[in-house]
Amino acid sequence: MLLRRTVTVLAGLFVLFVLIAPSDLEKFSFESFLRVPLEGLIGVMVLVLLPDRFRKPAAIVGGIALGLFTVVKIMDIGFDMVLYRPFDLVLDWPLLVPAIDFVDVTFGRFASVLAVALAVALVAGIVFLAAISVQRLSSVAAGRRPIAIRAVALVAVACVSLAVPGVPVYSDAAATSLVDHARRVQAGLNDREVFAAEASVDAFRGHPGLLSSLQGKDVVFTFVESYGKSALDMPDVAAKLAQGNDRLKAAGYSARSAYLTSPTAGGGSWMAQATLLSGLWIDNQQRYRNLVASDRLTLPRAFRESSWRSVGVVPGITQAWPEGDFFHYNQIYAAQDLGYKGPRFGYATTPDQFTLESFQRNERSKAHGPVMAAIPMVSSHAPWSPTPDSVEWDKLGDGSIYSTMPASNDPPESIFGRDPAAVRADYAHSISYSLESVLSYVEKYGDENLVMVFLGDHQPAQMVTGEGASRDVPITIVAKDPAVMDQVAGWKWDDGIKPGGSAPVSRMSDFRDQFLSTFSPPND
């Protein structure tokens, strides 16, 4: 008897937890569970009033549905922690493939197969547990039908009677979540057509004289991983930017800065980079796949068709990258092409400073025509520890010098098992290192023909930014030639490499057109 009652209580607590638990881990609190789930009251009444021959099948179906809802809620929590948004039932399934690939590359094929097997077992276990829990509660309630009906009625009346503005007594979180997911499903099913319509409009395809105002310039776009607006408030980063601004001024450079709103946050760097380079809003994997299968004019392609040598320096690419062909680079330098012989620092296969040195060695150190480069900087990718030290440029060699520094191969998700204050400090240190790599590169190798654009791809995880952070990232353009800076004066960006609180903000997808229209003749 005691065992049966214990099982019943545990089943009830499980169902109660699933129905009431928030989809945002930061909203978990003791008070958030002191509510009555309306969906639970309705479910009890339906099962109690059903004829006996229908009740058990209905309980099993309802339990399976509750189990699947639980899985989706877990996905919601995970996506909110990393990407600041719920899981999309239509558009987010392709994101699981890169996750599996990451485990495969980082820990091996056995680890990736094991991770998939454990995930499948977890889903099956949750669905089974939900099904037997609902079945157990249904049987108990049906065996005491009059008491169950009275109890539900009493609780419902109490919820209405005790309701006080601002003090929630009941919860409809499960129903609200289902409605929200249904709306996102509808939007996701229509997104393919919406994106096709957006992509069909391109004012710069066939535009004569593209980028003619930059002829003879080496134009470098560097994406500083996780460099978000939130970093600007951190003392280490603010000091690095202030110091860097003074150094660039002393070397004869000018800079202007603003903000771009990224299509993603916490992760999804490839979507942000594709957004900036293509001029289309890429906020899900379906859009990314459709983009790379299209004939869209990207910035690398525009430069290549205007007589620049266009290169992609992508240290985060460690295996075949077929979608790289979409960008129309003359050459792609993946991780294995950079000549790095040192250790790995967290996610980063190559320290940012070495990445830039490799680009300089392969492209700009010899006699060359104008070159355009897109370079993701990955040292500031989570887990943000350890971060390498800056090295004198002439001593980088093949990277063996880094062997004297603490290194690791920790996965990005390891941040969730560490002290948040330490994570934020490590994040600020890694951003400072990446910024120093860019700034010192300009000092060391810059000249009248260098135009450097550096920006963040997205904000870091909410563990760093806190809840409610924007998706804005800083962007800066640096050049020594006054003619270049005169042409961007119309952008009304702030002077210097740190945008102020009231600096202009635009969508990241608008930058391509802004850049092309500024440095190209009018399209009559």
From TrEMBL:
Species name: Lentzea waywayandensis
Protein biosynthesis found in the keyword field: no
InterPro entries, sorted: Alkaline_phosphatase_core_sf
Keyword list, A-Z: Membrane, Transmembrane, Transmembrane helix
Chain ranges passing through the membrane: 32-50, 57-75, 110-135, 147-170
Keyword Membrane carried by entry: yes
SUPFAM superfamilies (UniProt xref): Alkaline phosphatase-like
Protein name: Phosphoglycerol transferase MdoB
